[in-house]
Amino acid sequence: MVKPSTFRATAWDPLLIISQIVTLQCLCYLSASLITLIIAGLTGADITLDNLFNFREYRGDTVFGWTLAAGWLANSAFGAFLLLHIVERAKLCLDFTLTFHFFHLLFTSLYSQQVPSHIMWWTLNIVSCCLMSIGGEWVCMHREMTPIQLGGGSSSEASSSRSNSDRNKRKTSSPTYEMLPLEEVDEGGRSL
């Protein structure tokens, strides 16, 4: 009997999806809070929840508004790396990014007691969504495309039919991967 894979054993796991959404939301807000705390400390502004959830703070006519916008974009770049560790799948990054920004829209609307009406806030969140999604997909695809390393150098491999020079050449070259280089495979598909 074939043992089933433990990674994503089921296609629909609501508990996993909900926990990933909550974790992503909490960690993104934690990092945004730390960035906003640094910005407020450097500019001398008051530290309030308005800096995160009041859309009126993100204004294009003040330096503090532009600084908050830059901090939010930096947070979305950090969010791309959070997607790498929480979601781990490139094809799910857009879904989780849109979910995060949808909940941010809800939280901002509830906190401000109206749907955001400033074009700066909408532009900032669209750019943030694109940056987080594309960045998350890129880092996840980069990880997914790395070669799978197999445990090389074991005693059973050392006692194989390879000559000493071939073994020494392998030890000084790159680590053992799933596939052999083409020059080491003859036409029949056997390794030399």
Overall body shape: elongated
Which residues sit in consecutive blocks of at least 5 with pLDDT less than 50?
155-162
Compute the CA-based radius of gyration: 25 Å
Instruction: Give the count of helical stretches.
Output: 7
- The helix-strand sequence is HHHHHHH
Main β-sheet, in a few words?
A: none
Strand content: under 5%
Mean pLDDT reading: 81
**Percent in helix:** 55-70%
Class computed from helices, strands and strand pairing: mainly alpha
Number of strands: 0
Briefly say what this structure is.
61% of the residues lie in helices and 0% in strands.
Question: What's the topology here?
Answer:
Elements: H1 14-43, H2 50-53, H3 63-86, H4 93-112, H5 119-144, H6 155-158, H7 164-172
Helix pairs in contact: 1-3, 3-5, 4-5
Question: What attributes does this structure have?
Answer:
Integral_membrane_SYS1-rel, 192 residues, elongated, membrane, mainly alpha, 0% strand
Task: Describe the protein.
This protein has 192 residues and is an all-alpha fold. The protein is 61% helix and 0% strand. It has seven helices and no strands. Helix 3 runs parallel beside helix 5. The longest helix is centred in the first third of the chain and has 30 residues. The protein is elongated and about 70 Å long. About 4% of the residues have low confidence. Belongs to the SYS1 family. It is a multi-pass membrane protein. This is Protein SYS1 homolog. Pfam families: SYS1. It comes from Basidiobolus ranarum.
